[in-house]
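Before relying on records like the one below, remember that each one covers exactly one chain. Contacts with other chains, cofactors or solvent are not represented anywhere in the record.
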Amino acid sequence: MRSKIAGVGYYVPETVVKNADLELLMDTSDAWIQERTGIQERRYGKAHAETTTTMGARAAEIAIQRAGITKEEVDFIIFATLSPDYFFPGCGVLLQRELKITSLEAPALDIRNQCSGFIYGLSIADQFIKSGQYKNILLVGAEMHSMGLDFSSRGRNVTVIFGDGAGAVVVQPTESEGILNTVLHSDGTYAEELAFINPGCHGGYHLGKEAFGYTDQNYGGIFLTEKMWNEQMIFPTMNGPLVFKTAVVKFQEVILEALNKAGLQAEDIDLLIPHQANLRISQFIQQKLNLRNDQVWNNIQKYGNTTAATIPIALGEAWEAGKIKEGDLICMAAFGSGFTWGSVLLRW
């Protein structure tokens, strides 16, 4: 028994935010953003009307319909995000409520693997399907980054990259090839180099308590300090050069590892769907693997980096465009915060 993706759906908010719109808020330019990231525009959800969960539900409804099942047949939920509605509980149970299937009491699992969240989630779903424990697993990757970004010049290096959106798939058993293998890795050495550190319960442990305004009296016991708020230490941070340098190596390695496990070569890939972190990273990997333009799907130009949602959104777009056909070899790969990275190789 193997698993397959039986249905795929995605949702992106209506509001389009172009690079020129960000020029009004911070010291940046369309040329600067496109040169470094390839991004031309992104989508932002409606504040106080849309959330990570509601966007995930819209994508899930499409995936469920395309899988040919009803909501009531979903027997397991996996939700991947770094921008949950609440610190707790997770979005999995909120999605269950949004879809109005709480009476089923199906389990809901939240995972926090950031850019690799969808890949990790698909690997988990694959194992549950192969074990025979579940038959219709709903996997959602969704993000509402716009509610937690620094829209000043100080935060431009991060803010210009991210957008909002959601993607979902339904994973079911199959007697054909389906998912051939999944490969997962992590290395926490540089955890703080791409991170949303505050607020948190770390008490300044990793980076030094003085940097966060702690004293011996409150060290380790304060969730959010006045210093963090006054000095705007409550936004994501990223060491861009280190992330880029590491990503281009790990992306290639994890794709080749999946291909080697299946006895295949890069030239056998019909479509590579990389995590949409940076168009320059995707282009570098394409060049290293000697893939044609029609063998790689990129949409970061339109949506920016939607973290856990990038791969399912791209998968849904490619499927709708007729770029994925039965029997095609599809490779999906991601690298991100943690650092975590992984790949999935499947026969559609």
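The chain has a mean pLDDT of 94.
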